[in-house]
Amino acid sequence: MKQKNKGAIYGMDIGTIYTQWATNRYFDEETRKELETIADNNSEIRDRFYKELNFGTAGIRGIIGAGTNRMNKYVVRRLSTAIAAHILSKGTKAKKDGIVIGYDSRNFSEEFAKEAAAVFAGNGIKVYLHTEIIPVPVLSFSVRHLRCAAGVMITASHNPKEYNGYKVYGPDGAQLSLTDSAQISRIMLSITDYTKVPSFSFDFFKTGNNIKYVDSNIKSIYLKEVKKLIADKEGFKKNAGKITVVYTPLHGAGAKWIPEILKECGVTNLHTVKEQMQPDGNFPTVNLPNPEDPAAFTMALDLAKNIQADIVLASDPDSDRTGVYARTPNGDYAMLNGNQIGVLLLERIIESHNMRKMMPVNPFVVSTVVSTRLTKQICETNNIEYIDVLTGFKFIGEKIMELDERGDKNFLFGFEESYGYLPGTYARDKDAVAGCLFMAEAAAHYAASGKTLFEALDDIYKKYSYHNELQVSINLKGESGLRMIQKIMDVVRNAAGRFTANVPAVYTDIQTSEITKYNADGSIASKEKSTLPSSNVLTFDYGDRWFCLRPSGTEPKIKIYFGGIADNLDTAHDKAIKLKEEVVGKIMPIIKK
Length: 593
Hints:
Blueprint lengths: L7 E2 L2 E2 H10 L5 H8 L5 H8 L9 E5 L9 H16 L3 H6 L1 E5 L5 H14 L4 E3 L6 H11 L3 E5 L8 E7 L8 H13 L11 H6 L3 E3 L4 H10 L5 H7 L5 E4 L9 H7 L5 E3 L25 H10 L3 E5 L6 E6 L5 E4 L1 H18 L7 E6 L5 H8 L3 E5 L3 H13 L4 E7 L3 E3 L9 H17 L4 H11 L2 E10 L2 H18 L10 E4 L4 E5 L5 E6 L8 E4 L3 E7 L5 E10 L2 H24 L1
Parallel strand pairs: 4-5, 4-6, 5-8, 9-10, 9-11, 14-15, 14-16
Antiparallel strand pairs: 1-2, 3-7, 6-7, 11-12, 12-13, 16-17, 18-24, 19-20, 19-22, 20-21, 22-23, 23-24
């Protein structure tokens, strides 16, 4: 190996770490052989070993392969050891309450789940393991139902087939809090030699009954909890059979859950994309198993056009994201973005609860700083408390615990623009099972009035105001990409209110927890502290337009979100576009320098 490949983690240079992984008998033959094939490839060695996978939004995610910067059983073993230490630090009760583990259809998901189970059992922690692939919300529900101290879900969500990941949940069923994440990260960093991490036999602990499989009746219990949240059950039962629905799980876990709940609620004209119903971690019919990507709907749309479906639904491999295409008034099909789905669901939930006189006292709705501002307007008009949180559904889960579980308020709905929705407290993560069910209910309700979902959405805009949102993702891979992402954030942060030609009404640096309000001449009117936890996020609010800048927590990219507000859709769109052109036009030269 050439000496130019320098750098260090754990106080060792990259070459030393690579050599250990490539030659030490602690690592299996398959791992050693994989690393032998890149012995003369310095850039590949560096990419695999220059850092650890980032412990981002309560977990890790990365390309499957050998190395510290890859997803493999040794990385799973090390992280599981750190989580085990964290659980044991909570005392005897947490150890007995144990941990529940689930996994999706991705390659190596079951193997990684069993590796984690063996580590927890080997550390004396009670383990529950799901017997087959499940949606993320079912794992969240399982933590609460079984009253476990923690949960683990093996998944890389909507990432390409080369990826897998590991998400960690707390006792409330939400993704780990920032405090617990930080503690686990500290424990992980103290484990500097992979060869010193103990390995345990899954078969040994399974035979000894230290690892128990989750009872299969949890499925019916979970589905019952979701179904009972439909406020207008009578109307849904009456109208569900009148709409035609197409559904695809994109080779993921939703295949055995979503069709079942739709049929149980009366959606009899349900058609599934047969070629995509088989769970498969190679995702053979799509380039990217992401319901945010229009290309993922190609086969579903072909089916929809043939049968003249009213709505097309899709879920990602771990079934936490919900994608939707709907028939337009002229008979074509168009995609609803994540914000549009969110406001349609919110308005319908409010409407049905009011109609049935089921609106709870002190209701509240939670969404994120990068999602549409229309949510706040809808809530204020309907006397419902609205709460902004950081990106990541764990922050929505935290608000449920704080205000609903421990307080005197009642959670009504939560969503984030990245196609994640939750209509109840049975789980604390986004749920495509519920998302698909509630979208079908909304489609059936509006169809009974002779309206498409797009016509219903336009009614919402007319009632409140027109909002249009855009997003730009700038991919910056590798070690140099991480440095560039931080450079962009630093340049924008240092410019503050002077970054754009418009003087922002409000500029918020969430990392420093400082909100600055500007006068029309650019002078500072006032400063105050943000109540959001510190995060590397910047927001600019001009009143009738806004944008937000943040690095992704799970992918090597920087994301920029834009919004425009007006009394018609074209003007709102134009405002968002012009702001995007200005901001991106100032960021791209930073990258090219």
